[in-house]
């Protein structure tokens, strides 16, 4: 079993090592990382611990979708040696639970097309998103934190941008 808890300041270096191991040294050049400007949402930054060891991490950033602020899920990372044991699932479910009831109507993720639907994510390809850079469109998926948030969206296109811009 994994214990999920909020990230602490002293976890930062371990999480950075996990990110480097999972996403590699070029990670900051990826379009999704360009959206992560400013600090992550502290109340939604969680780790999975096996005993005292950090084995997984999930963070969320706020991003602009057209004229509204929504959440961007990720990076989500689990130690390679511990994959397939439910750790990623526990992190995503916990993170979405913490995000529910907040001010954000939607969560957007750039992730594996066949991983996120199990949590309720749906393809974003019909919403005419203007992503900042190259993206395989099937990676973009939405999760409704507020029921009806997707059906209530005005017509696109929607520029996806950092909130700090
Ligand atoms: C994606 C990742 C977070 C999944 O974590 P994990 O702990 O291995 O996943 P879980 O054990 O919780 O898997 C839950 C379910 O998803 C399935 N699954 C796991 N990885 C998957 C993937 N990449 N694609 C599709 N399904 C996947 C599992 O088989 C499991 O299915 P089941 O419930 O039917 O048994 C992990 O593989 C990882 O860190 N990958 C590299 C980084 C990455 O791609 N992050 C996501 C993009 S931000």
What features would you describe in this structure?
This protein is an alpha+beta fold. The protein has a single domain, classed as Aminopeptidase, CATH 3.40.630. The protein contains 3 helices and 9 strands, in the order βααβββαβββββ. The protein has helices at residues 12-23, 31-34, 87-99, and strands at 3-6, 46-50, 53-65, 68-78, 106-110, 122-123, 129-130, 140-144, 158-162. Strands 1, 2, 3, 4, 5, 6, 7, 8 and 9 form a 9-stranded mixed sheet that branches. Strand 3 and strand 4 (68-78) form a beta hairpin. The radius of gyration is 15 Å and the shape is globular. The N and C termini lie far apart (40 Å). 31% of the residues are buried. The mean pLDDT is 96. Residues 22, 74-78, 83-89, 111-112, 114-115 line the site of coenzyme A (COA).
